[in-house]
Amino acid sequence: MNAKKSKGDKPEKTGGKTEKVKGKVKSATSRARSVLGRVIMGRHANGMRRVAITGMGTINALGRDVPATFEAMREGRCGIGPLEFRDVDRLAVRIGGQVRDWDAETYFNRQQIVLYDKFTQFTLIAAREAVEQSGLIFEGELGLRSGVVLGTAAGGMNTWDENYRTVYEEGKNRVHPFVVPKLMNNAAASHLSMEYGLMGPSFTVATACASSNHAMGMAFNMVRSGAAAVMLTGGSEAMLCFGGVKAWEGLRVMSKDACRPFSATRNGMVQGEGAGVFVFEDWEHAVARGADILAEVVGFSMSADAQDIVMPSAIGAQRTITGAMMDAQLRPEEIGYINAHGTGTAANDKTECAAVAHAFGHHADRLMISSTKSMHGHLIGGTGAVELLACIMALRDGVIAPTIGYEEPDPECALDVVPNEAREARVGAVLSNAFAFGGLNAVIALRKV
Amino acid sequence: MTEIRDRIIQIIAEQAMLDPAELRPEMSPQEIGIDSMGLVESIFALEEEFDISVPFNANAPETSDFDISTLASIIAAVEKLVAEKA
Prior knowledge:
The structure holds 2 protein chains of 2 kinds. By secondary structure, chain A is α/β, with parallel strands linked by helices. Chain A contains 15 helices and 14 strands. In chain A, the strands form 3 sheets. A 10-stranded mixed sheet of chain A has the order 5-4-6-7-1-8-14-13-9-10, sandwiched between helices. In chain A, strands 2-3 form a two-stranded antiparallel sheet. Chain A is globular, with a radius of gyration of 21 Å. Chain B is an all-alpha fold. Chain B has a single domain, classed as Orthogonal Bundle (Non-ribosomal Peptide Synthetase Peptidyl Carrier Protein, Chain A), CATH 1.10.1200. The chains are: A alpha/beta, B mainly alpha. Chains A and B meet through loops of A and α3 of B.
């Protein structure tokens, strides 16, 4: 972990090729030689560590794991459909990206279910897939140097909803003793720490629709700075219950039929649910144990519009996009794909396109930008995590997930939004945007390995 | 009263994931395998089952009016609360 610094160990900016290392750092390179025989340094010139993604997991409306989700994204399949839960007939909005036929008993025993709200259940399922893929076992010092930071907007919303129903609607005066440990926003992060023995920095971030991106940005910075060797990160949301959807109805920004981002015919957002969890690992640690590195996290930026509690700002979004590229030391021309925030609302999509146009100049006409919310819905605090999967698919498989439901061009969204069908393309670096209510922006940059 | 007693034993045994036959009156919650959270959950279950309100404070279990030192004491206390309700 003590690679010598030299001008030669600065990572190259475009993805796909292995990095050249000069003879000056020979002793360090021999230690950092991967099982693939490639010579890769784990440090930037400024001493910051490089960050590898070595595991990914998910459950969402498109599938109950990553392969199923990738397949659906490749096929441009829509996971949005009629909502199924109690009192749905009292809602004006009755569609969502729901995890169908949910049966917690398939995954958890009775004692676990008593303690796990659905957002925690989703998190544990996604984490299991991610940690298994990484091959990590958090024993001894690694457990002490690893943590978990997750995003969620509403935490245990189903638990609030069910228990409010009990005391308000049914008039009962007693609730189950575990209501609080079940609904608290940090429950999922705490259960992950307990499940895997993660004893380092662990907490939950709540920044509405940007929660997961903020969480992953925090995890990135913690591994990069050396504060942690491994971070489990991502986010989860389970707001698809009567109270959760009723609250969103109030804003009147929801579509009653479909999520059609960037299309002139778009008429609002559609909620989703699920989780995405990733393993962010110190590059040298990953290389030393011969791990399969899925992608490199290279940059992160966050900012606040300081303007309006719901209306987005193109300037704030643009500052954050540019900030992420600067942090990653990537030039705009190196970005091949952006996973858009792309909610399908009138306000977001045109603001986001204006921000991208300004941030990229001429290159805005060359890059691809798609919103996978058209398929899995808007997972609110968990959305950035599921959307990072589309970024990894782009880098690793050369498949760009489409924006489905696209019907008619909108002059205010005149970018290549990869309409309706997935596209094969080689990209070296990508961005994932999240612009939350409250004017809180978070953009993350990944590079191909 | 046998019926109430059996229902209490059933609830406690289920919480501890034991067969009701394995429980003896002199056993403490710890001996049965019920931790502090499990005890709170058991009390909630007893309240629901018998529609009673158990005066139990998890911060100071020993000073509560509800004696939880053994299975026998829990049964006696619940029976008393059920009788008071009637």
